[in-house]
Amino acid sequence: MHAHGTAVPAPPPAAAVRVREATARWWPLLPVLATVLLLAAPVHGAGAGGPARVTPADAASGAVVLCALVGVLRRRTKPLAPVAVFVFGAPAVGCAIATVTSADPALSLTGFVRYLQVFVLVPLAVVLLIRDAWGFRVVTGCLVVLALVQGVVGVHQYVTGTGASYMGEDIRAVGTFGPTDVMGMATVVAYGLLAAAALALRTPRHAPGWLRPAALVAAMGLVVPLALSFSRGAWIATVIAGATLLLLAGRRLAMRTLAVLVPASVVLVVGFGVGSEMISQRLTSITQVTDTPDRSVNDRYTMWAAATSMWREQPAAGVGLKGFPAHRDAHASIGLSSGSDTAGAGRSFEKQPLLSPHNMYLLVLSEQGLIGVTAFVGSWAAVLVGGVRRLLPAGRRTVAAADCGLVAVGLALWQTVDFLYADIGGPSTVLTGIVFGLAAWWALAGPRHAASPAPACPSARVPGAPVEAEARAAT
């Protein structure tokens, strides 16, 4: 009691403080985690060639953007550096120009919204909502969980003959995405494989002892569904990105990891006879695409030529977003198929229209011209180069957030390589925005932000505490 009899307010209970700290730490991440995990749910979309549907994950991505906007308004501070404004602003400008110059602006507007969602708003929101390396690792962990779930579903589809149709058998692993999005599961599994491999190569300093072996087992296990996806583009991108991660992690560590990963993967895929004959045929077809291309490869080449022809006709701004299907037949040769056959995985036979060239760079070039492709490629290159530049000194100093850098660079490199053989489309597209957000967070966040290690327990950091204090506590 004071002299005047006034009672001193009691401090808040420790439990209440911990709840408040945990809430402040977790709430910005919840919509991001929901967007990732909702992709594990089966998608009952429209038939092949039907109108696109807004999936639960798409709706959750809207919450991601809204939460980021609320956070910016509450902080009332300048949220982005000038380079970040370029990275996210350039694609938006390119899309806007292609929309207003399109022959069908109303149709192009739907494409503008989708591009804005995937390449601008969602990545930007992820950059703003991830506050430290701990948050990055939580999102990465959910990505691995999603990959494992989809991988288990895919392997089950192969074993039970309930997958998508491939070479006359319903054995192609497509996860919950169905036969009209055969790249969906392959993309998710590849993301998870690279994220798990990065965690195994550069385990966080304060991580529990079980994390590295668990990450290694997850990476090895995800090789199986990736192989059973029969996706040549995903295989090539994964090999290139994985080899790059090994080089960035250091030669000695890379050799030790390869000594474990390669034999185990061979045993899983070949030793148990997991689709080994068909996988071998698919691998062989990669080297024969120029000599004896199959029908799918021939269609791809034809659509690539059509996309290039569209660009020559409209070199500056392209034919407009969503304009490729309308202009395809006028620029494609007579050898182009009428559509792609899809069946299996709970769906009857359908003819899926060829709506894109299956090459993101050529799709942007044909629909947005030199303006759009320069903006997009410049944006992606800035993220990838910036991520590698920040990772190289981190690798030499072996700082705690080097695992975040490996994940970010691996995912960004995989996506840019895969875009040579694929483009956006389908329910899994929203995950591309999350991945670019993770890569951009590492490439664009300040050195103190990304280099701050995760605390030993979630409550070890008081929200709003200076980052310098965290760095001193970890050394």
Automatic annotation (TrEMBL):
UniProt key word Ribosomal protein: no
Taxonomy, superkingdom: Bacteria
Pfam families for this protein: Wzy_C
Keywords for this protein: Ligase, Membrane, Transmembrane, Transmembrane helix
InterPro entries the UniProt entry points to: O-antigen_ligase-rel_domated (IPR007016), WaaL-like (IPR051533)
Membrane topology classification: Multi-pass membrane protein
Transmembrane portions of the chain: 55-73, 80-100, 112-131, 138-159, 182-201, 210-228, 234-250, 257-275, 369-388, 400-422, 428-445
GO molecular function: ligase activity
Cellular component GO terms held in the UniProt record: membrane
Compartments where located: Membrane
Domain O-antigen ligase-related, first and last residues per copy: 221-377
Main location (coarse class): membrane
PANTHER family: LIPOPOLYSACCHARIDE BIOSYNTHESIS PROTEIN PA4999-RELATED, TEICHURONIC ACID BIOSYNTHESIS PROTEIN TUAE
Record-given protein name: O-antigen ligase
